[in-house]
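hey so i finally got around to running the thing on that chain from the lab meeting. sorry it took forever, my laptop kept dying and i had to restart like 3 times. anyway pasting the input first so we r on the same page abt which one it is
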Amino acid sequence: MSSMITGGGKSTFRSFYDSCIAPAFYMDYRSLAFGRVMVASYLLADIFFRALDADIHYTQWGQFPASMAAPLLEYRFTLHLFNGSYIFQLFMFAMAALFAFALLIGYHTRIAALLSYIMLASIQNRNVYVLDGSDDYNRMILFWFILLPSAKRFAVDAVRTQPTYTAQRIIRNRDVGTLGDKTMGGGAQPNQSHISLSTLGYMTQFTCIYLFTALLKHGDDWHVNLNAVYYSLNLREFNYGLTWTLLQYPDFLRFLTKATLLFEYLGPILMVSPVLNPYCRIFSILGFVGMHAGFGLCINIYLFIFIPMVAVSTYTPSLIWDYFDRVITSVRERHMLTIYYDSKANDVQQLHEDGIFVDESAQQHGEELKSRYFSVQFDGDIYCDYQAFVVLVSQSWLLWPLQSIVKTKPCCQFLSTICSAFVDLFNSRDSFGLKQRKQAINNTSGDKRSIGRILVTIVIPLIFILYVPYWNYNGYRRSLDATYPSPKFATWAYIFKADQWWGMFAPNPPKYSRWLAVPAQFENLQDVDLLNDLKQVDYVANPVYTFNSGQRQRNFLMSVIYHEEIRLNYGRFICRTWNINYPNEGYGKLKTFKIVLVQRLTREPGDDTPNDYFKEDIWTHTC
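ok and heres what got predicted. didnt touch it at all, straight out
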């Protein structure tokens, strides 16, 4: 009797797992790979735009020198304080870009993700006054890619560690989609879906972002009069695009307020729905993309628009990938392309073991296929070496726009040299052979591998699964009651950069717009605004610098409004800029300037009376 009960219990649990847990909490390996590429691409864009102003924000002679940054670190760390020179900062950005590129192509993926996370945390800690909510979002999403198996597909690591699968996947693509696993929803292939504490942790983090974003919006403008979107669109330092059109429809804005708040609650839940999960995920993904794209059409928040789109890409259901597999298979069958790798090699079986497919008919083509590296047969013609590479680029659904570039002679010479060096390097069996790599792995300590596996797959994910909701809940409680105690282990959260805050436009959007004007007196030019292309000071006109100075500089200038401690060094930076770095003989030397805070009150909906403007001198500086 007991054995029957036990057996029945196992069957019941398995049934519950297959019907509820697996369809809701899985992530497709292809989606994880796609998310990895998106995260790395976002990192590269962020690095690029930060590097444009590296001398302003991260050097000793910038707006925020090391002497000010060091005392604010407390338990945080930053490698960017080792040297305050411009060259060193560019070197650090180059290293960050290198790690992000390694993450993009999936080369030593976990290490690349870890190093990218360290570099991202370091640059964020170096200057906290240029940060906004997108930085927390980016950092927390990147953290989970240290733990997620995002290199199983579309990665160099997939070729290095799973050669047999890769070869079969490329050559026998016509079988894709025929091995569906109904428990994964949408016909996922048996080994395409992944469930672990890491996937659960990623979903927990994503849910916390939007759940606590919604909870923190507990003001009347979100729940009673529904004017939150109206006040958000009236922020002169942010609004542009469709703002003025939407402001003509106050009832529609109230609907958007209600819809935004509702979707921030329901969107993450739909991602893990056990019923019709693929379709719920598609609806939720489109909802998040549409919501943030809508924000971007009305409010200038720079890269903040894109990081949520990056985050939801990892939820892409399997049926989407299976559909694309069928389409690509159909195209490949119409335009058959065969790759012959190392056609001069005699040990064809050895190449098969290394994950390289060599068609048996290669021997029939004789001299035509005797290339140094590889050959391609396409539409009856045979191409060798670099010409074969050009054909592959032209037939790639991702790289085809580059075919006109790779056909040029300078590009041909450059890439041929690079490829020749790399191929010769990797063909060296003594250093980089797959058998040697496998042997080296087998010779390492099994105990160390087991400990590392337990840390990555169980201990670290479990700690963050428990702590991230606790941290966010604590922040929510403190937003309601300032006397509520700070979270436990906050020091460790700051060290590992797990601290986060999702309170944009919470509890209500501001009912005023704030920006700066900097009226200056040169020797030969008077009363011009340094933040408005040296035009005459106009305190009523919409600010220009908030749209043309870049995300980081705008954030820093907004910090100048609220943080008096950075105004002195900002003033010194202005004097150096105009009198030393970029002097103008026509204007003469910059003598004095003021930093003026301009505030514009937003009228209630339906009130057409002119807006009130106030200005206050918050800093006076003499050069």
